[in-house]
UniProtKB/TrEMBL annotation:
Keyword vocabulary terms for this entry: Phosphoprotein
Domain Response regulatory per the UniProt entry, residue ranges: 2-119
Name used for this protein in its record: Response regulator
Organism: Demequina capsici
One Gene Ontology biological process: phosphorelay signal transduction system
């Protein structure tokens, strides 16, 4: 399964990837993107099966990335891993077509409990 993890923090991308591996997704082929614009380029070029994105990033935010993809007719499954998880943000994410929003800090169990039902 090809996955794009987008976050402007290299350290946070590595934490997300390590936690995904701890959650049992060590078979995923994960590509990193340093912001929404970089993610958009990589998604267009490589057609991943799933996108995990931060919300607040320079150049293009996560919600702008999601809206851009949906505006192009791209229905790649998309979710957020972000430091903010207000009800308003969750509603915006859902309305834009996100599968879920996981607020930081997170654990491997959080990923497993959220992602496993979607893969079944």
């Amino acid at each position: 399964m090809k996955v794009v993890v987008a976050d402007d923090s290299r350290v946070m991308r590595q934490i997300v990837i390590r936690t995904l591996r701890q959650a049992g997704y060590d078979w995923w082929d994960i590509e990193e993107a340093e912001n929404g614009a970089d993610a958009l380029t990589k998604i267009r070029a490589n057609e991943p099966d799933f996108v995990l994105s931060d919300w607040n990033m320079p150049e293009m935010t996560g919600i702008e990335l999601l809206r851009s993809l949906r505006g192009e007719g791209n229905e790649t499954p998309f979710a957020f891993v972000t430091s903010e998880g207000s009800d308003q943000m969750r509603e915006m994410a859902e309305q834009a077509g996100a599968l879920f929003l996981i607020a930081k800090p997170f654990t491997a169990d959080t990923f497993r409990d959220t992602i496993d039902p979607l893969l079944a």
